[in-house]
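Chapter review: from sequence to fold.
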Amino acid sequence: MGKVLFVHGMGHDDDRNYWKKWAVPLRLELAGQGLDLKEEQWEGVYYYDLMPGPGKKADQDQVVQVQLINLKEKVSQDLYSLRASGTRKMETVRRIAELVVDNFGDIIAYLYFEQTHQAVNQRLYEAIAAEEEPVNLIGYSLGSIVSYCALKQNRSAARKVAHLILLGSPLFWFRHGVAGRVGLELKPAVGRLTNIAGMLDIAWPQAVPNILHGLDQNIEFMINPFDPVRGHQEYFCNKKSLSVIASEIKKGWDIACPLNRN
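The token string follows.
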């Protein structure tokens, strides 16, 4: 029958069924595009419980503290080379980099805490293995990094993914940490790999094609022209975004169907 699996982003939430509020509008959009999926064909991977809690921030670890300092410097240099010139502008860029890095603590924990990294990956592997047929995997925000890293490290799991969709990915900001885990030259052994980038989105997902090789498609559209924070949060309620995501799910379904018959 096949399924759509969501992998959530950062933050702490006790709702293991977070994905249901994302699935409802997508089901309606897909039905309008001619693909009628049942409620039981949607599922989500939950890993909030594996992340350091609010009282156990990742930067308390000395090793991670060093990684944070290096990451901020690298991100500052990357962003500066793209967007700014002059000493004052460089200082502004540095503050932006620090703000972004400091507020993506779960990503730091995933990339630099070995126990957390392996536990989150295992949670994803278990969800994929539980399905008899190829899945469409939607990795949102941190979930895009989790999905990419995990599937690069497990070819068997990757081959059960008909379509990996990176949604609102902050890979630009954390490219150095990801590169420390997996190579960026070749895509995972999935059927199709797509990057969906809404603008303005503070995660800067439109930079992903400059970092990842092997994308089958990159889709950019205006999601919020005024507020980059809200732009990162509107993928499952924005009309254009829902249309784009649904269309990509359909492409994955077309890939999964022949795989199901083999």
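Two observations follow directly from the output. Residues 3-51+116-261 form a domain with the Rossmann fold fold (CATH 3.40.50.1820). The beta strands are 3-7, 42-45, 135-140, 161-167, 192-199, 217-222.
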